């Protein structure tokens, strides 16, 4: 009769443990292969669906430069943003010592050499007055803009590319400009920007001197108290590359709306053309 010594028992236990570990490893490998096959199938299906969706989008008719389903998505985003908008909801402000010169992104409309002495701001769509018919254009000098109440603020210029810079701006509130140079109304009655702003025409169009860059604003954003017709940046007059002699600063919107070297302001009840909206971006461009 054979006898089992104490030395043999641990060896048998170690063998059983090793077999169990190998079985466990094989089970794990089988499960990983199963999951890998499933993941591959799901990934292939997702890729096919994505390619099909892109192909479908590419064949849809264009609306302002992009397929209409994308344009509808942007319009829904705009309506949500406009519902959220309040004139009393301010963009963040910062201490003046944080201000820096922003990048001089975008030179569309700035190609011609600036002649500051001959620059004039043309204003169209004004209400009729004793001195002017409603169809008459008005030409203003920079000194006339500077005669409006001066406002300073330190806000972020946010680029749609993803960068932002804190800047110290100075200029006239667009709301004060509208109070001084009243737009036509939807009702045809005399304008009252302070008591009946909802009766003003719905939009503002702004263009560079040469008309090559243009943006559109809804009237409520133009009347926002942080929307400026700006002529100074960080304590000095605007430079040519930053939009001299007059640019728009509207911190509730991305930089693509902050048009430089404004040549024409037009008040209108028709939604204006917008340079980047025609190239696939959001017309509203709020953040």
Query: What is the helix content?
Result: 25-40%
The coarse silhouette is elongated
How large, in whole angstroms, is the Cα Rg? 31 Å
- Given helix and strand content, the structural type is alpha+beta
How far is it from the N-terminal to the C-terminal residue, by CA? 89 Å
Q: From N to C, what is the helix and strand string?
A: HEEHEEHEEHEEHEEEE
The biggest beta sheet is recorded as:
5 strands, mixed
How big a fraction of the residues is strand? Answer: 15-25%
Count of runs of 4 or more consecutive helical residues: 5
How many runs of DSSP E, i.e. beta strands? 12
The stretches of 5 or more residues where confidence is low (pLDDT under 50) are: none
What average pLDDT do the residues reach? 85
Largest beta sheet: what is the strand line-up? 4-3-12-7-8
Written overview of the protein:
This protein is an alpha+beta fold and 287 residues long. The chain contains five helices and twelve strands. The protein has helices at 8-58, 68-84, 142-146, 174-180, 219-222; strands at 62-63, 66-67, 121-124, 138-140, 150-158, 164-173, 203-208, 214-218, 228-233, 236-237, 247-249, 262-268. The strands form three sheets. A five-stranded mixed sheet has the order 4-3-12-7-8. Strands 5, 6, 9, 10 and 11 form a five-stranded antiparallel sheet that branches. The model has no long low-confidence stretch (mean pLDDT 85).
Topology of helices and strands:
Elements lengths: L7 H51 L3 E2 L2 E2 H17 L36 E4 L13 E3 L1 H5 L3 E9 L5 E10 H7 L22 E6 L5 E5 H4 L5 E6 L2 E2 L9 E3 L12 E7 L19
Parallel strand pairs: 3-12
Antiparallel strand pairs: 1-2, 3-4, 5-6, 6-9, 7-8, 7-12, 9-10, 9-11
